[in-house]
Specification:
Blueprint lengths: L2 E6 L2 E9 L5 E3 L4 H5 L19 E4 L4 E4 L2 E2 H4 L5 H10 L5 H13 L8 H5 L7 H15 L7 H26 L13 H10 L10 H13 L7 H11 L4 H13 L6 H14 L4 H9 L20 H17 L4 H15 L1 H5 L6 H11 L7 H21 L24
Antiparallel strand pairs: 1-2, 2-3, 4-5, 5-6
Helix pairs in contact: 3-18, 4-7, 6-7, 6-11, 7-8, 7-18, 8-9, 9-14, 9-17, 9-18, 10-11, 10-18, 11-18, 12-15, 12-17, 14-17
The structure holds carboxymethyl coenzyme *A.
Amino acid sequence: MSTAHLSLNDKNFEFPTFAGTEHELAIDCGKLRGSTGAVTYDPGYGNTGSCKSAITFIDGEKGILRYRGYPIEDLVGNVKFTQVAYLLIHGELPTTTEFDVWRNELTQHSLVHESMLNFFDHFPVTAHPMNILASMISSMSSFYPQDGEDEDKLNLNIMRLVGQVKTLAAFSYKKSVGQPVVYPRTDLSYSANFLRMMFGLPTEEYEVSPVIEKALDALLILHADHEQNCSTSTVRMVGSSRANLYASISAGVNALWGPLHGGANQAVLEMLEMIQADGGNYKKYVEKAKDKDDDFRLMGFGHRVYKNFDPRAKILCTAAEEVLNELGVSDPLLDIAKNLEEIALSDPFFVERKLYPNVDFYSGIIYRALGIPTEMFTVLFSIGRMPGWIAHWLEMRSDPDGRIHRPRQIYIGETERRLNV
Ligand code: CMC
């Protein structure tokens, strides 16, 4: 492998390089400060590889996204979200027997500890469900403590997290609308269970629509992992201090909530509604997004990694149309979204900056057609991302190069000054 040469203050330094299995080249600068006295400066870590990872591969230029080597286009529609969860966490798709055991255990562990139900009563009705979800996941470490490195306990806690996240999500919604919670059932699929817990009532039967179940499962798969994004990096960073799994994941949920990350799906819908209320004048909003003196951004556009197209958005754009057709829903917001996309994709401002619709642009329209309230959109993202967060947390813990995450800084404050005493 080639060597990287650095010339600094008339001295020459050499650094080893290495490549990943998909040939991305990395300069190993682990000894940079020790040998040169300098550190790297990379705001937002756009050029920094924080770890080696075998979970997800993205080629942002070619619009490729693969989980453990499998393209998302192969997974969506052919396997279930729970199989993808197993793939991400265990590295391989489950055999039939492994899947039976996994599915059964996830269902068994989808019941929330009864004492935790009291917590829901004490959030204000206006509380955002992402905040409730993060708090609930954090409190799980009180109910199911992780003793040291006990593998069996850790596996149990993983199952509890994947199994219970949808229950906690649905319960937080039920509380916000003042309805009694609906417990999970062992005979339903993961997605069907979530839908029943969201929209069912204890007083009557709830028939899960197969169209909606299938669409939700596909959405969860498309959100299941995305390598070192903001929330996953947060999970890894918190976990690097040896904080427990629940503490690390609840930090990830909070990171996801921000509108530049997972919170963008809610923000997209709110933006489309605002444009609709403004007479559908989408051109005005494209101009606002281009105006440097205006903070407004086209939500659902742009990505740190994808500079060609987001393959998830491509699948979702087609899926949005199919779901709306199958459900017989006509949504004027879909037309506004398509108009925005068309105009933005031909406008030099967006073309030059390689700003394309991302996963959050079309997901909200599908969630809306499925009857999911806007405030729950990012919660849905969290349910999907759970296996990815867990897989990264596990990988981080077993990384032989792993150390506590502790970046350096370049101090630009006052130099030493003394009190005049
Ligand atoms: N609308 C208008 N201009 C934009 C947008 C946008 N959505 N996104 C980026 N730009 C411009 C930005 O102003 C900058 O212009 P200039 O070079 O003239 O200063 C240029 O494009 C580069 O932007 P950046 O902020 O440096 O890019 P970044 O890689 O740091 O940020 C991003 C990526 C996703 C945060 C950003 O594109 C954005 O804010 N998008 C809107 C929010 C969004 O949709 N987020 C969801 C991301 S995908 C799912 C997920 O991560 O959860």
